Amino acid sequence: MKKLAIITARGGSKRIPRKNIKDFCKKPILAYSIEAALGSGIFDRVMVSTDDEEIAFVAEKYGAEIPFLRSRGTSGDFATTNDVLLEVLKEYQVRGECFETACCIYPTAPFVTAARLREAMEMLQKSDADTLIPVVSFSYPPQRAMLIRDGRLEFEYPQYLDSRSQDLEPHYHDAGQFYIFRTEAFLKNKRLMVGNILPMVLSELEVQDIDNETDWKIAEMKYLLRFGEMGGSLC
After folding, report:
1. Is 15 exposed, middle or buried (0-12, 13-18, 19+ CB in 10 A)?
2. Dihedral, CA atoms, 130, 131, 132, 134, nearest 10 degrees?
3. Is the Cβ–Cβ distance between 158 and 48 less than 8 Å?
């Protein structure tokens, strides 16, 4: 059963310029996703989908394949992850290569480990799910959310006004790191976030959105706290 790792790394980041190859704890952040995928030993191919020659150079330096560059249609600000994955899988089909399972890994996911990828792949293969998505619980119950209207605070869900936090059902959100999926189901649905989805629950220490420079610094501190020298580099 052939397996493909697809690391999505376009060159047009706006909020953090050159984000996908910016140094994170002294090496390009893209390198962490590549090393995790290669180190897992579960993929027949580890490829980076990019439109950028410099990103392609860095990716190949760390051992990933760049069999083809992205099209213009999947390189813009409005292209989705689904669009990129569809393009990659269809291009491989044109080249006579098909994969039963694929894993989309984001290029700014330094907390992803080879062990987590192996665990996730095993979980999916033992299930009847179409897709596995890592998730993390909200740090504060969304049921206690407040809105500001006309300069005043209002509870969005007043029915939970007197509820204790520990009595409310946990809510989760996408960890924004990777997705493992059966390609047949994905090519049929053309979306990851539909169908039979299996969760992998992560801790807050394993997850950090990186949308601005402050997020970047927090992520580096978390990385050092979690991995230290074991992570292969120091901040």
Report:
1. exposed
2. -150
3. no
Residuewise pLDDT in 10s, the chain (235 residues): 899 999 999 998 878 999 999 999 999 999 999 999 999 999 999 999 999 999 999 999 999 999 999 999 999 888 999 999 999 999 999 999 999 999 999 999 999 999 999 999 999 999 999 999 999 999 999 999 999 999 999 999 999 999 998 999 999 999 999 999 999 999 999 999 999 999 999 999 999 999 999 999 999 999 999 998 555 444 4
Residues 128 and 30 sit within 8 Å (Cβ to Cβ): no
Q: How far apart are CA 186 and CA 101, in angstroms?
A: 10
Beta bridge pairs of residue 149: 152
Q: How do beta strands 131-137 and 178-182 pair? A: antiparallel
3-state SS, residue 136: strand
Strands (DSSP E) contained in the chain are: 3-8, 23-24, 27-28, 45-49, 101-105, 131-137, 146-149, 152-155, 172-174, 178-182, 197-202
pTM for the model stands at: 0.94
Number of DSSP helices (H) and strands (E) in the chain, helices first: 6, 11
Please tell me whether residue 105 adopts helix, strand or coil conformation: strand
